[in-house]
UniProtKB/TrEMBL annotation, chain A:
Compartmental location: Membrane
Species of provenance: Halarcobacter anaerophilus
Protein name per UniProt: Cytochrome b
Topology of the protein relative to the lipid bilayer: Multi-pass membrane protein
One term of GO molecular function: electron transfer activity
Every Cytochrome b/b6 N-terminal region profile domain range: 10-223
InterPro entries hit by this protein: Cyt_b/b6_C (IPR005798), Cyt_b/b6_C_sf (IPR036150), Cyt_b/b6_N (IPR005797), Cytb/b6-like_sf (IPR027387), Cytochrome_b_N_euk/bac (IPR048259), Di-haem_cyt_TM (IPR016174)
From TrEMBL, chain B:
Protein name per its UniProtKB record: Ubiquinol-cytochrome c reductase iron-sulfur subunit
Domain Rieske: 45-150
NCBIfam families in alphabetical order: TAT_signal_seq
Cofactor(s), by name: [2Fe-2S] cluster
This protein's GO CC annotations: membrane
SUPFAM superfamilies: ISP domain
PANTHER family linked: CYTOCHROME B-C1 COMPLEX SUBUNIT RIESKE, MITOCHONDRIAL (PTHR10134)
Entry similarity comment: Belongs to the Rieske iron-sulfur protein family.
GO molecular function, one term: metal ion binding
Gene3D superfamilies listed in its UniProt record: Rieske [2Fe-2S] iron-sulphur domain
Length: 415, 166
């Protein structure tokens, strides 16, 4: 056993038993961050905070929510919104945070792509991040169906129907996932379980893993400079703080994160109090009805780009059915980002503005994703269908040409 | 057993075998826990009287929570291999969920139109426009006199299902 002596303070008592001094050093005061990073690197702390808000507001909603097809709609729209003190606030905080969390995830993701933070040595950071994105998507979707309104119901109908595209077992798989021939009570209760228990646990484990993946290759910086962390940390600890290229996470770096967080929270609560409607589709204030479909259904804004890739292919090509092409393209869109570290053939880690071809590629991808997002919400008729088709095709082509594009940059630099 | 295999290896292999059997049984149990409940399976029958239906005006009934279209065809609607003939009347029977992504198409005078993604189906439930990959699905049914019982496979169903496969 460790040497335990009489402690003179609570801190010392804990230190002898839990090694808290060492723990604080590793996690905070000697966790080194490069000086050369901008506000875009604060998204991690923003996400951690938003996820905490989601959990806490979710706990308060959970205490009055009833996962039953006959009770769910009223438990949300009457009990929580009208009767529970501040129930409306918890719902709006939860709904807005669920939407905003995806905005921050996208900024976080594209910061990583712009600065090449997924490359050589940082692949696990990228992969664990993409796994988090997929789990967050499942979490968002399973939560979306809980209020049991019309949009919830038909979102569940369409998403579960997608599994019907799996070869051979598709139809049986859809019945199995739903637990009924239709989206029904069994579907609601199992998605309730996923949303409030299994997926949040998986997300928490993945967040822990995502943090851990960062500790060994360390965080990237604005110039993608390869920093010798041991040497720089030594400089800092010996008092040479000005020369050192690194600073400790706590209490130095966190102050910048907190400043960005302050601005973000003002924006977030502005949305919660004055613009919560953007996260509340009017169609979802009609109770779910399995015998009538709303005229136009679409997912939340953060899924629109992949939804548009899914429906962008609206005509059959030879023996291939439009439905299957769309489904394959949708699958492609959802796994291709995961493979980014291997599609990028540039031998160096550099920010996009120092890689001319990749720079162009990056901004075309941005523009294409915005087009897909806008057209994802429009009805897919006439010219809209063709815009969707070309944008979806461009999306796929961009990733097919990425290895070539990144090779060109390396060649131009003479490598 | 060779001389190099010692007692710990034996315990290890034995444990692996027990764990594999237990793990596999657990997966079977978990898979079945997500299957539809017996009450859901038992509730899957709906009986509809066909004689009162007006030609050219499809009715919508609920079977297993899904809408079922039953259309009595008028004289000028063309014959189709999936027509259900009862007495002198021809009917189209179909699950009223678009085969694209499951929205419910609405009857517009001479065809079903889906508002979600623009799919269209003719009075014989065949896909004639838009993204749906196949005609509306045929629900299992049997005929008792002038009544149709949805949920069991009668000879009339089998005949139409085989005709549709061909």
């Amino acid at each position: 056993m460790a040497k335990i002596t009489k402690a003179n303070s609570v801190g010392e008592w804990l230190d002898q038993r839990l090694n808290t001094t060492k723990f604080n050093k590793v996690m905070m005061t000697e966790y080194w961050i490069p000086k050369d990073i901008n506000f875009l690197w604060a998204m991690g702390v923003l996400l951690a905070t938003t996820f905490t808000i989601l959990i806490i507001s979710g706990i308060f909603l959970l205490m009055y929510y009833k996962p039953d097809v006959n009770l769910a709609f009223d438990s949300v729209n009457y009990t929580i919104m009208q009767e529970v003190a501040y129930g409306w606030l918890f719902r709006h905080m939860h709904g807005v945070a669920a939407s905003v969390v995806f905005l921050i995830i996208y900024i976080h993701m594209f910061t990583g792509i712009y600065y090449g933070s997924y490359k050589q040595g940082r692949e696990m950071i990228w992969i664990s991040g993409m796994l988090l994105f997929v789990t967050f998507s499942a979490e968002g979707f399973s939560g979306y169906m809980l209020p049991w309104g019309q949009m919830s119901y038909w979102a569940a109908m369409v998403i579960t129907n997608l599994f019907g595209g799996v070869p051979f077992i598709g139809d049986a798989l859809v019945v199995w996932i739903r637990g009924d021939f239709n989206v029904a009570d069994a579907t609601l209760t199992r998605f309730f379980m996923l949303h409030v228990f299994l997926l949040p646990i998986v997300i928490m484990l993945l967040i822990g893993f995502h943090f851990y993946t960062l500790r060994i290759p360390h965080v990237n910086n604005q110039t993608s400079e390869d920093i010798d962390y041991d040497a720089e940390a030594e400089k800092y600890l010996s008092g040479n703080k000005k020369e050192s290229k690194v600073i400790p996470f706590w209490p130095i770096f966190i102050s910048k994160d907190l400043a960005v967080l302050g601005i973000f929270l003002i924006f977030y609560f502005y949305l919660v109090f004055f613009h919560y409607n953007f996260a509340m589709d009017p169609v979802n204030f009609d109770p779910a009805n399995n015998m009538s479909t709303p005229a136009h259904i679409y997912p939340e804004w953060y899924f629109l780009w992949s939804y548009e890739v899914l429906r962008g292919f609206f005509f059959d090509v030879g023996p291939l059915k439009a439905f299957d092409i769309g489904l394959a393209a949708f699958g492609f869109a959802n796994v291709i980002f995961l493979l980014l570290p291997w599609l990028d053939r540039d031998t160096k880690i550099l920010p996009a503005h120092k890689r001319p071809a990749f720079f162009v590629w990056f901004w075309i991808l941005m523009a294409d994703l915005i087009v897909l997002t806008i057209w994802g919400k429009l009805p897919p008729t006439g010219a809209n269908a063709w815009v969707g088709f070309f944008a979806a095709t461009l999306f796929i082509l961009l990733f097919i040409f990425l290895p070539v594009v990144t090779k060109i940059d390396a060649k131009k630099r003479g490598e | 057993m060779s001389n190099e295999t010692n007692r710990r290896d034996f315990l290890g292999y034995t444990f692996a075998a027990v764990a594999a059997v237990g793990g596999a049984s657990a997966l079977v149990g978990m898979k079945q826990a997500w299957d539809p409940l017996p009450s859901v399976l038992a509730g899957g029958f709906t009986t509809v009287e066909l004689s009162g239906i007006k030609a050219g005006e499809p009715i919508v009934v609920t079977w297993r929570g899904k809408p079922i279209f039953i259309l009595k065809k008028t004289e000028d609607m063309e014959d189709n291999k999936r027509d259900l003939v009862v007495g002198n009347d021809r009917f189209t029977v179909a699950i009223g969920l678009c085969t694209h992504l499951g929205c419910i198409p609405a009857w517009k005078k001479t065809k079903w139109k889906c508002a979600c993604h623009g799919g269209e189906f003719n009075p014989s439930a065949e896909n004639i426009f838009g993204p749906p990959p196949r005609p509306l699905d045929l629900p299992p049914f049997s005929i008792k006199g002038t009544q149709i019982v949805l949920g069991e496979e009668g000879p009339e169903y089998k005949k139409i299902a085989t005709a549709m496969m061909a």
